[in-house]
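Open question from group meeting: does this chain pack into something compact, or does most of it stay loose? Before anyone orders reagents, we agreed to write out a predicted structure and look at it together. Recording both the input and the output here so the notebook holds the full record.
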Amino acid sequence: MAAVYSGISFKLKSKTTSWEDKLKLAHFAWISHQCVLPNKEQVLLDWARQSLIAFYKKKLDLKEDIVERLWIYIDNILHSKKLQDLLKNGKTINLQISLVKIINERIAEFSLSESQRSTCAVLSCCQGILSTPALAVIYTARQELIVALLSQLCWLACRQPEGTEVAQLFEVIRLALGHYLSIQQQQVNPRRAFGEVTGHLLQPCLVLRHLLSGGTWAQAGQGQLRQALSRDVRSQIEAMLRGGAFQPELLSSYKEELLDQQQGDKKIGAMKNLLAPMDTVIARLVDAGYCEPSLHAAVVANSVALLYKLFLDSYFKEGNQLLCFQVLPRLFGCLRISHWQEEQLKALATSDWTTELLVVEQLLNSVANNNIYNIAADRIRHGEVQFHFYRRLAELLINHSQASVPAWFRCLKALMSLNHLILEPDLDDLLASTWIDAEVTDFRTKKAQEALLHTLFQTYVKLRQVPRLFEEILGVICRPAAEALRQPVLTSGPSRVLSECLLELPPSQILDTWSLVLEKFQSLVLPYLRGDADMALKSLSLSSLLHCIMFNMRSLDSSTPLPVIRRMQCMMERMLRELVRPLLDILLDPQGPELELWLQKISDSALLLSYTWAQVDTMLSINCSQYHSVSGALTDVAVEISNLPLLLPGVETCHWKKIEKFTAQFDSLGRYCLEQLYLQKMKRTLIQTSCQSEEALCSLKCDAAYILGSGRESLNRGAAASWDGQAGTVSALTYPVAHWHLIVSNLTILISYLCPDDVRSLASVLLRTLLVSKAQEGSADEEPSITLEKISSAILHSPLFPEMQSLHSAFLMCLTEGCTSILCSGAQSDPSLLSQQLPWLFEKDHMVVALWENRFAKVGPESVEPKGEIAQNLLSLVKSDFPIQLEGEQLDSILGLLEVISALQLDSLLTPYHVHYFLLLLSVAITKLGSSCSSSLTLKFLMTCYRLLGYLQRGKSARSVLKIMYVSDIFEIMLTSLFKASSRFPVNIDDPSWSEFLQVIGAFLEQLMQMLIQMKLSLVLNFGKITGFLHKLYTEATAGKQVENQNPWGRQLLLVSLTKLCQVLGPFVRERKQQHEAPAVLSELLQKAILHTGAVLQLCWAQGAQGQHLPSVFIASVSTLLEAEVGQHSRHRTEISRMTDRIPLSHTAFYQNVYSQLLSELPALAGDSQCFQAAMRFLTLFFLAPELHPKKDSVFTSMFHSVRKVLGDPAVPVEVIQDIEPHLGVLFTQMLEVGTTEDFRMVMQCILQGLDISNMWKANLQLQNREACQEQPVPVAVVGPILDVLAALLRQGEETISNPHHVSLAFSILLTVPLDHLKPPEYGSIFLRVHNVLFSILQCHPKVMLKAIPSFLNCFNRLVFSVMHEGRQKDKGSTDDLSVALECARLVERMYSHIATRAEEFTVFSPFMVAQYVTEVQKVTLYPAVKGLLQEGIYLILDLCIEPDIQFLRVSLQPGVRDIFKELYNDYVKYHKAKHEGERRYTV
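Structure tokens returned:
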């Protein structure tokens, strides 16, 4: 042995041995049990360490590859299980400080150079040391080593490495931070801790935290960093900074520095020489040398808010507010915006402003959230030091407007919330920069602006100084400015804020504000309007303000004090007299060119105020009986035409004609307001006059025509910008939307007075705006706005739309004309001929189409077919060459119209419209499609057509179609067209869209035939024609020519048609047969359909289905055929004789072949829910037809094992298993109902054997990682159904499961089910299932329980202990998951009660149950609710204990547990036992 030792030692130290051999020998020596060296592990580790030291001290020349392998060798040793076992057994391994220093030096080298060689190996070595407590002591014992390591690791991470080393590097950083934090918490010298953090760790940690916060490694890729690890590292950095720079022991130093107060107690200690800690921190923070200039400003900004937060977390308490404030100016001074010169600030980019303003916002929010600023205390005690700082900050923000930055608005909002006096000296500039002159376009910025204005207005509402605020607003609006560059004053945000403010004001303040605006308008704007565009624009701004004030004030009513009403009336009269009429006079006498901008804006202003005045005047007249309008009272008495309401009192009709002529020259707010005035006049007319008045009716029609005609040209132009709904923002671009919104919002008033041409025009606009491309609609993240498309879509989906019959009818006709126009564009023949062939396309009146009902009504016996004219016409067109062919673009256009049609309530159409639309849609559906139409577009088009036809025929007027066409004719037209087109279908037969298409066609065919049966419409005639037509198609499909052409699409269409015929006719004939009412002809037709379906299926089977995956349409057809044939044969058997042998089915061999193939490919079908459902249906039907079963094998066994294969296939996802469970349930139900006892025994045996999953659970439980243990989706999802099946089987009782051993297997299964490391919903689900299994055994297997009580209690105690674990009071204090624990505790209490009812069996075990309960409960602190439920249960077990049992427990329990038992027993005697004794006495 000595020879072996000396040989290895000699070779490792020998200079002649190559390094390759040395490494191999060292590796062998480490792993081999045959190599025995004294202290081998230490020797080998020292050899590798010394080799590396010699290399790095230039005493040894090694290749880079050898150096890297030496690091890997050390890493393998450090991570080896062998080393971990040695350390666990108490053996000491000395790493030596020299190795740790080399590691630190290498990491420092990596952080400075680009070299990546050996990085992963060195980091892995470091991780191995830090993750092993026995080895990590070398770092924790020498604090300077861990500080140096942590500093260099952070600098290395700040180089932003990529690739696989990122996660490893951050894991090492996390470990190093964890060790340093534990050292820091034990540090008794605060000066040393402060020096380490500020001197070595502050800068790299702040840079690293900034990079992590910015998501540097969050992007997907090799260098992606787990979010949890990133969050952990950030929180550790914050904890380290708080523990080093803001220790409780440093509070006196901070006070001395920041408050400039001398401490009375001059103690000599560690803190004597530690001066100005905040200056030290700030100096290290702003030092420009520790990171790149491009990154420095962002790091400083990001760190300022953090440092202030940490300072507040450490030192904020009542009485320290001034101290906490004094930090704020110093940290704020670190930001560039606090000290840069004016020129530098102007040059600062918007992104830099955003960064720094976000920090300012965080600082101000911290001040507000912690109540640092007390206005009174600051003024009385501290000379307004805080106020002056906030004032300087406010001046900085207002003087350097950043209206494109949301944080700028939020900072001002925070200042306003602190104290309105901070901003009040600059209130005019604030209003100008944040509102009146601000150019805000971004949605987020608008929301921030709205929040600021809301705070501003609400503040002045509370102060009751709203007139004062409006005085400033008016001053800003009226001061000289480039008005053309200003945005509208009242866009949606400010308008919403002002509206909320006005609703809270009392009438007196509203009237004061109104009067103030009126005076400013009269004195500063009105005299200077002529020829001045800027003044005209100011007048529009003031008009918008007046409009908002008048529209949003609280309405007066009869209970309003009379002085307020009189003042309101005076204000209304004054406004009309002194403002509205003078503005209109300027408009009527322009004294210059009419198209000048100033005149246009005056017209907008005058008409906006006129409309506002008229609206408010009407509202006041209706709501307040004491208000007397200058317009005259509103009455319900009919009056003469001369007394009909004017648009505005005192302005004659001739003047309005002139104004109308002027506003008609351009799209503007004025025209919109004039329309509103006419609408207001209509409302007054309707209130004031009787509907019988001819003059009033004429006036209403004229007014409605004007409103609609005013914006017709604008709507026809189509282009329009979105509108925010505010009257003041109507412009040439938004006018079409505002006009359309006005019309649609008041359709219920207008529609009754529009002429037919106007209604058609309205319908045309509605359709055109609905067909706007989706690309023109706004994106989801834009500001909510009104567009033409949204308005039209709203009316289309409105329940009122069908009620407006004239518009609805016109819209339907517009849709018809649109479809006809597209169809005519694809006409292949003369249009006049087309109008004869398809006359309904060109019919302009639905009523004419409806008259065809009488023309084609059937008037004779069934053999006569007078109503077949339309059908024969269509059929001849389809068979020959349909005169219309659509190409790709035309198909796109008609699909757009069909989408609009699908939004209509087709099932509620009146008879004329129903017939017209059925013929239209049928004509569209059978149209020939050109070669440019793609497969997806073709199928989408056909599916849309037949879905709409189906939707239509589910309506109340469905019978009307059958008065002009037979169902059999529709059937033939449709299938003839589809068969003709099928040969040209450019689609793969396996495409999912083709399957969907077949479903749609099948659904419509089934609907047609069901309609025949429900309405009893010539059943023999129609089904005879349908069967004859399908026989013809079948003949063609089986002809040699057709086989050569290989038209699988046509075959599948035929198959679907025959299947639906069998599916509809089969149950109907069976039902009528039972009632002895079925005509023999229908039975014969069904038999023909069955034979044809079988033949087509066998043809499909022979030409492709056999040997391949069966398509869903094939499986569904086979199932339907089998069901129909079994039904037919069961009737025949009854008719012939009950005693005769079974009549074999005609397709027995075929069914058996399909059955065999389905069983073999069942796992493959599981991924397709539709196919699997069809397969389950076929297997269920096959199982219920014993005459089909093969004689050799058991069908029950084969099906069961196939289903087991599906459930056990790892390739089938859990989600798929959950989807197919209902279909499997149906099959199993039928199998278990019909199956024999042997079948059931086999099922139970297989399931119980399959439940032995202990190895899988144990493997999962060995996972030590917390996250890995929490995520076990597959086992938890699988074990739930297994336990359900087990409980269901056990509930069958002892009659079914006679062997007690089989029942006992359930206990071993339950012991392997995990109840820990589960999420609350999963825990509750598994707990309930385990409880159900135990309950099933307890209730249904009494013989087993006689011998299996210990096993039962083992399983039950697992439930009890898990409830205690889940119901314990957690550190976080959250009770969100308590409901699950409570429900489980109730189940435990319930089980205890069932056990107590079996006293004879469980009495012997009751003291042991109590002992286990108290032993476990003393380990945790339970929530009272959970504890109460468990105690109620254990009290029932104590009822079973006799006095010797109690004495036994008192003696045998451990001291701590004994106390718990004593308390439990005392409560039992005091509450439970006493209560039951009292109940017993009461009963006696």
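Observations to bring back to the group:
The chain has a mean pLDDT of 83.
The longest strand covers residues 885-886.
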